[in-house]
User: Fold this.
Amino acid sequence: MCWDDAGAVHAMKAAVLVFPGINRERDMARTLRLVSGTAPAMVWHAETELPAGTDLVVIPGGFSYGDYLRCGAIAARSPIMDAVRVHAAKGGLTLGVCNGFQILCEAGLLPGVLMRNAQLRFICHDVYLRVERSDTAFTRGYNAGQVIRVPVAHGEGNYIADGETIARLEGEGRVIFRYSSPDGMIDPNWNHNGAINAIAGILNERGNVLGMMPHPENHVEAAIGPTDGRGLFAGLAEVLERVA
Amino acid sequence: MIPNEPKITPELVAEHGLKLDEYRRVLDLIGREPTLTELGIFSAMWNEHCSYKSSKVHLRTLPTKAPWVIQGPGENAGVIDVGDGLACVFKMESHNHPSYIEPYQGAATGVGGILRDVFTMGARPIACLNALSFGSPAHPKTRHLVSGVVAGIGGYGNSFGVPTVGGSVRFHARYDGNCLVNAMAVGIAKKDKIFYAAASGVGMPIVYLGSKTGRDGIHGASMASAEFDEDSEGKRPTVQVGDPFSEKLLLEACLEIMHKDCVIAIQDMGAAGLTCSAVEMGAKGDLGVTLELDKVPCREEGMTAYEMMLSESQERMLMVLKPEKETEAETIFRKWGLDFAVVGETTPSKRFVVRHHGDVMADLPIKELGDQAPEYKRPFVSAAKPAVVNADRVRAPVGLSEALEKLLATPDLCSKRWVWEQYDHIILGNTVQRPGGDAAVVRVEDGPKGLALSTDVTPRYCEADAFEGGKQAVAECWRNLTSVGARPLAITDNLNFGNPERPEIMGQFVGCIRGIAAACKALDFPVVSGNVSLYNETNGRAILPTPSIGGVGLLGDFAKSATIAFKRGGEAILLVGETAGWLGQSIYLRDICGREEGAPPPVDLTEERENGDFVRTLILDGSASAAHDLSDGGLAVALAEMAMASDIGAALDEGPGDIVSHAYWFGEDQARYLITVPAAEVDMVMRRARAASVPVWRIGTTGGNALALPGERLLPLAALGERFEGWLPTYMAGELANA
Assistant:
């Protein structure tokens, strides 16, 4: 597959939500454009509808509303989020990265919450993620068990939920990414933020909403660094092209 | 009629930091006693921080021009042409005193201030750097300051959404009572869309933008213009509180109104807030300004004119608006949830008039407040030059391997990963070289151009010999940019010194400026912006003279940039530049021998240029597979850094017989680089070096997983790396005895 081939036909129609204080929207938009060949629509938080035909909603990283309340709490109550709920309820693909993950949790589209990192500091560095499943729209570009290297940049990425929820997430195979060692071992030394069960990304019940703390969108260009994040977007582009 | 309450007493004048002769000058200028508001305005404009009254006469001697310089010093930031219709806008500024009193907010607002300086000119910030100097690790306050400053820099930059890609961190007891926080911001703008502070046109609306005005930061600039003492903690209320969220909104809103061509002139409200911004816009445009304070958005009720004029509330801007664009501009600001208020207008009078509740609270000549503020030619004495340390007479207390192991775990040479991992250094997706190398490299827009960025200074050299130290700071910055393959273009200088009223401090200042000027001239590396921070003293003890240099270099193709990491085994390691074994003022002499003395290494600017140009050529034509400049710790430390960055070891040959071995391996001779080249290309590179009259020696070969200094036990890289990475996290966790 060559997803940046300008001659390819692309049907993916992504919308990147922009809340005040979001700051990785440009990174996300560039990645979607590079991988799918089509620039996404940038949708302002005060809008009440998504652009017609939107098949992927992306909530990028940043500090929406300064994260002055709980991370994502205010953005989750923005006008556009009602449209996102409708989109997700219809089975529309929805991806939340970093602050986007926090917003999805606050919006009730994903369970659980992201707490302060265990070491109480903001951390920016590359981490290794074990991809737990490859049979989802988000991870079809990877093999199950594959380890990918992507960066994190967050102060509050320490995922937690009540025991029952965690048991369900695990039982239903909804933990999609885990922090791991470079050879895929789950080890507290490689779980930089202390997330329970080393959880880095989870799916909703229906499998169409993914929230994750790391930034795959920052690892897609060989000229800049590793390209392990590309598989996620390439996989989505492939799914959405087939749907079309 | 100007109400004049309370009476202006000599005590009140002194509290405002104005000297008797300065106050007399005020009386002469306006022909009457000033109002309290006016006294506050004079105090804000004529303090050292805003007026540069002690430094101006010397700053004028710095080279500021080159064909690629679009805007030199005097504006919010410097601007250089980087081709393709783009300009790079950058500046470095200190926030020292606030950071010592309240490290998180002091550092955070330092970052906020410098970012505003850059986007005020129409540039989108693409990178931040910083230069931090802390007291001795053993000082009880140091850990608290490191922790707070680093968290503050990260807290602001991460939320604002700009990558913090590089910087420097040092420790020395002379910063015990006065840490230094120098923050640099770099932005990219369209060359024909640069915005300036000078107002133009009479009767044009002056618009207040951004956050509301509160009582925070009143007299901040005056605090920055006085020495510290035991009571300085009491000045905490003068430290402002940063709001990166508002700043991000302000950035987007400002860029949007600039894009829509609404702006005649714009100035951020930094030190001395509303006063300084309004006066600068008027003075630079040869216009008067009238402000109606009743229209200023306030956070608190009952604020007086005095408080509003001196508040340093953050995330605010003042703009002269194209009148026909008022509705359009206001709509944009409302969309971003920011305040927008017309608070005054430009006038033909060259007077600065402030009205509040119907009264004229100030009516002052604007030029004398602004660009014609007092200037001093303060007396200065140059310190005697220290004796050159004879390396032959420096006994090596430990062997080479042990010395290297120790040095890599010293506060100044250890890895600063603990610091830069708290900064988002990858956001925006353009960071080609992350922190930890010689210079950061960021892609410009979608490439292929890249910018190389570095901050440098070696304060102990400046203390020992201000002129050589000033030269070295610029030369090392130039060298760091060169080491990644960039063509160095221009610098911003952030000059941190003690009390200029002391002739020996003024001597340091003047010496450093002369050194900086000499190096800038020789290296075609002009100063385009800068900041002076004086009075960095506590209880009469000054910091080390610290002229931080922030440099910008250009890469035609970022993909060609070199990194410090060895690339493969079996490559030749070449040393470029003359080695004499200079131990005076070296880290080895200080941290291994316990002697902080001697003359610093001299900087031969011709050699710097020739050696650097040679290395850059090898990088750009693909001959050099890795490159690293030699600085603190000398040859052995540079080799260890290259090896640790790659997990590839090296075997080193004996040094020349006429230099004692510890001086060869740890001396800090200048104008030197290490490069690696494939073994088959050594002869060709040597021939080219001879042709260019550049001294080059082959000193070893890459390979293995250890560093092998000649005749010494092997140093496995894993163990070296642990020492290198270990010191700072261990110290910050409070797990080091005596530190």
Notes: The interface with chain A takes residues 151, 154-155, 158-161, 243-246, 248-249, 336-337, 420-432, 443, 447, 558-559 of chain B (CB under 8 Å).
